[in-house]
Structures are given as structure tokens and as C-alpha cells.
């Protein structure tokens, strides 16, 4: 499946945020890329702001356009605020849960762990990154993958208490998805209402 494999610093500079993680380039050049990037006089239209917010969410969670649109449709049909439900659906993706549990340093690395059959859900191997984890399910590392250096390095010093909707068990290297996260608990700087307005046009 197609994924963005271009320069991540360029995307981070476009949004002015380290959406792929810590970025030295962003701290040195905190303006958009391109010959007009440092022109502070440029104003973005309302549509431009809405589109940028959608793009930011897509890049942050590593979701393609069709997948994102399908998730929005699902969120629109669900109870609650559409924007919040959309973020909750994105947070419930297996690759994102693996990332939040500290098993991988980035969502891209988490996607790779899932695709390479290193991750289990309730004891069964699941290799679909977009799999939607349900409250009560346990996401863990496959027995033969528990000694992987990449997982040990990611877990080293990771603070598992910062995500209250997940419960970590160090002995089994697994985490329980306790409940769907509240919007206030999701740390991503995404203005979901702008995305709703974009799709409502």
C-alpha cells in the first residue's frame, strides 16, 4: 500500500510542528519549505486552513486519503461529536496503540512491527495496521519477538502512565486498551472541527 516516504522534515516544516517526532531541522528553520516559505505576509484562506488540518491529521497518523475519508464517514454516523469520534477512531488503530504503548519509537515503526507479524491482539497474531482495537482487548508482543532489540530500545525509559486509557504489563510486554480516550487526553495538536467543516462543504 502506498505510504509517504519523502522527506519528513519538509512536512513538519509545512505545519510548523514535529508531527513525526523530534526534528532538529524544525528548530533551525521553523518556517514552511519553498522559496516563499519565509514570507510572513502570506495569509491562508479558511479553506486552506481546513485542508491543512486534514493533511496534518493524515500525516500524523499515517493514514491515506481513502482510509481517512472512510473513518470520517464512520465518525459522522456515530453518536457524539464527529471530530472527537474521528480522533478516537484514529487512536484505536492497532499501529497507533502499539506506538502509544511504547513498543515502537514512531507510528511508521509500529506499522512495520504489525505488518511483520510481531504483534498480537488477545493472543492472536494480527498483521493489519488499521485493525480497530476494542476496549478490553490486550495488545502484546509475539513470544518469539520479545527479544527484538528495536522493541527493547523503544521501551527503555518510556513513560507508560501518560496515556490513561492504556494499562501496561512489563512482565508480559503487553498493554490493555481500557477505554476509548477522551479528547482532552489525546495529545495531538489537531483542530478536528476544521476537518469537520471541510467535509461539510
TrEMBL record:
Keyword terms: Ribonucleoprotein, Ribosomal protein, RNA-binding, rRNA-binding
Sample GO molecular function, one term: structural constituent of ribosome
GO CC annotation terms, alphabetical: small ribosomal subunit
Region (Disordered): 26-48
Domain of life per record: Bacteria
Swiss-Prot/TrEMBL GO biological process terms: ribosomal small subunit biogenesis; translation
Keyword RNA-binding (UniProt): yes
Residue ranges occupied by any RNA-binding S4 domain in the UniProt entry: 92-156
Cross-referenced Gene3D superfamilies: Ribosomal Protein S4 Delta 41, Chain A, domain 1 (1.10.1050.10), RNA-binding S4 domain (3.10.290.10)
Pfam family name, one: S4
SUPFAM superfamilies: Alpha-L RNA-binding motif (SSF55174)
Residue span(s) of domain Small ribosomal subunit protein uS4 N-terminal: 3-91
Family the UniProt entry places it in: Belongs to the universal ribosomal protein uS4 family.
Record's subunit section: Part of the 30S ribosomal subunit. Contacts protein S5. The interaction surface between S4 and S5 is involved in control of translational fidelity.
Role: One of the primary rRNA binding proteins, it binds directly to 16S rRNA where it nucleates assembly of the body of the 30S subunit. With S5 and S12 plays an important role in translational accuracy.
Entries under PANTHER family matching the protein: 30S 40S RIBOSOMAL PROTEIN, SMALL RIBOSOMAL SUBUNIT PROTEIN US4M
Protein's name according to its UniProt entry: Small ribosomal subunit protein uS4
Biological source species: Hallella multisaccharivorax DSM 17128
Gene (UniProt): rpsD
Amino acid at each position: 500500500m502506498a505510504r509517504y516516504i519523502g522527506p519528513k522534515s519538509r512536512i513538519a516544516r509545512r505545519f510548523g510542528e514535529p508531527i513525526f517526532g523530534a526534528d532538529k531541522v524544525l528548530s533551525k528553520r521553523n518556517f514552511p519549505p519553498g522559496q516563499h516559505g519565509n514570507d510572513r505576509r502570506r495569509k491562508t484562506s479558511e479553506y486552506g486552513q481546513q485542508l491543512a488540518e486534514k493533511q496534518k491529521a493524515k500525516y500524523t497518523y499515517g493514514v491515506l486519503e481513502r482510509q481517512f475519508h472512510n473513518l470520517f464517514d464512520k465518525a459522522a454516523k456515530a453518536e457524539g461529536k464527529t471530530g472527537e469520534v474521528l480522533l478516537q477512531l484514529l487512536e484505536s488503530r492497532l499501529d497507533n496503540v502499539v506506538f502509544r504503548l511504547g513498543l515502537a519509537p514512531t507510528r511508521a515503526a509500529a506499522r512495520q512491527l504489525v505488518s511483520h507479524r510481531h504483534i498480537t491482539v488477545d493472543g492472536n497474531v494480527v498483521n493489519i495496521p488499521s485493525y480497530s482495537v476494542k476496549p478490553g482487548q490486550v495488545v502484546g508482543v509475539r513470544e518469539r519477538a520479545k527479544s527484538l532489540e528495536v522493541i527493547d530500545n523503544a521501551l527503555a525509559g518510556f513513560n507508560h502512565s501518560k496515556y490513561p486509557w492504556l494499562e501496561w504489563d512489563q512482565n508480559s510486554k503487553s498493554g490493555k486498551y481500557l477505554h476509548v480516550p477522551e479528547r482532552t487526553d489525546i495529545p495531538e495538536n489537531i483542530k478536528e472541527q476544521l476537518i469537520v467543516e471541510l467535509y461539510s462543504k
